[in-house]
């Protein structure tokens, strides 16, 4: 009998815990209602280890990304779009310099085109890692680290003395560059309400969809007047400016922000 009562008591406590964790929060911001995510707690809840406290947004919490000012949201969306533009631009701008690679390294057109393949392969693999990582440590650290490493990995291509250095450098460049390409839409979703989401994504998509189009055009002029190595330096310069902007953008992932307050 005692065991049965104890079991019933445990079930009731667990049921109450689950009910608390899945409740929704209504925020009066921009005239919309958001179905809120689970609250951040001080430690893993359980019967033997109940949470010490839970952290929620206040109705007018300035730290809530959904309540940022309109101009700051706009700057954030444009910055995310520019970051994705740089990554996508680097994928096709390279193709304009392939004739220069053939001449300097005495390689075939097929070998030169491998630089596009290795870059896209790196992007495909990197996205598998960077997306879940951004939900563990937050989006901002992933952006800053990955974009910095991406820019550093342009140097081997710009200074390469053989085609192997270019192929390897572009693979790892794509690996790290994929973080901003894959996660920036999530940041847009973090800060924009349902009402304005279509507009925000329309603005964001201008960058990554047009970057591959602008690449060969820009690269053609750069290669003709400056040489194939400058197709790398141009991306490095533009990417450095975008990295400076990215440093001004705050964390957008709500659970990561709440986790800081729960410590």
UniProtKB/TrEMBL annotation:
<keyword id="KW-0472">Membrane</keyword>
<feature type="transmembrane region" description="Helical">
    <location>
        <begin position="110"/>
        <end position="129"/>
    </location>
</feature>
<dbReference type="InterPro" id="IPR011701">
    <property type="entry name" value="MFS"/>
</dbReference>
<dbReference type="InterPro" id="IPR036259">
    <property type="entry name" value="MFS_trans_sf"/>
</dbReference>
<protein>
    <recommendedName>
        <fullName>Major facilitator superfamily (MFS) profile domain-containing protein</fullName>
    </recommendedName>
</protein>
<dbReference type="Pfam" id="PF07690">
    <property type="entry name" value="MFS_1"/>
</dbReference>
<dbReference type="GO" id="GO:0022857">
    <property type="term" value="F:transmembrane transporter activity"/>
</dbReference>
<dbReference type="InterPro" id="IPR005829">
    <property type="entry name" value="Sugar_transporter_CS"/>
</dbReference>
<feature type="transmembrane region" description="Helical">
    <location>
        <begin position="70"/>
        <end position="90"/>
    </location>
</feature>
<dbReference type="InterPro" id="IPR020846">
    <property type="entry name" value="MFS_dom"/>
</dbReference>
<feature type="transmembrane region" description="Helical">
    <location>
        <begin position="230"/>
        <end position="249"/>
    </location>
</feature>
<keyword id="KW-1133">Transmembrane helix</keyword>
<dbReference type="GO" id="GO:0140115">
    <property type="term" value="P:export across plasma membrane"/>
</dbReference>
<feature type="domain" description="Major facilitator superfamily (MFS) profile">
    <location>
        <begin position="76"/>
        <end position="263"/>
    </location>
</feature>
<feature type="transmembrane region" description="Helical">
    <location>
        <begin position="198"/>
        <end position="218"/>
    </location>
</feature>
<dbReference type="GO" id="GO:0042908">
    <property type="term" value="P:xenobiotic transport"/>
</dbReference>
<dbReference type="GO" id="GO:0005886">
    <property type="term" value="C:plasma membrane"/>
</dbReference>
<feature type="transmembrane region" description="Helical">
    <location>
        <begin position="141"/>
        <end position="159"/>
    </location>
</feature>
<keyword id="KW-0812">Transmembrane</keyword>
<feature type="transmembrane region" description="Helical">
    <location>
        <begin position="165"/>
        <end position="186"/>
    </location>
</feature>
